[in-house]
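Here is an idea for our session: we take a single protein and study its fold together. Which protein we use is up to you, so please pick one and set it down. Once you have written the record down, we can walk along the chain together:
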Amino acid sequence: MFTQSPENSTMRSPFDSDLQPCDAKALLDNEAEPVKTVLEGVDVQRGYGLVKTEDGRQAELATVAVEAWHIKEHGEEELPEGSLGNLHEGDAYVIRWKYSITTLVGKRQKPGELSVAAPGRERIACFFWQGRHSSASEKGTSALMTVELGSHRGSQVLVTQGKEPPCFLQLFQGGLIIHKGSRDDSSNSTGIKRWIQYVNRVPAQF
């Protein structure tokens, strides 16, 4: 029903009085902080490109190699290169990321005026990814293996399904396929390919 304002003849809805302008500042203040993944004192951001070193200098981050292992109840199995990025929600995996950070030098520290210094040292980060339906035994084994792989150097990072940081997704060129069940179940199936989630939250690196 519409009512007529006594001040003028304009027809208006009785719901007009309930409308209030939104507070844009409040919305911006509540905006979530970007996720940071700090490895050996460096925020690796998306896992490639320009980053800042521990002392604040600009550097170039590049992937050297990616290896992955499927964790089983009593051991592990290294994944072939063609299977990287195909994970199962009923499993746990360890992914070892080898990367380098090379310091850039230049008069004004601007991207267009920077040159590459001597190649940076190779670094290692081990992620243990846990599917939401992986067993407690598999989670424990993946954690132990991660510590063993990075016992001498590197970082260990826990990644749970659905909360993968950008640098983790970049290991698979920006894409990640999460299948139902476990890898062993799918290998014994009749060839029907089942998958439930395709994650692609960051652009691939070319």
Remarks:
- The mean pLDDT is 76.
- Helices lie at 24-29, 136-149, 166-170, 183-187.
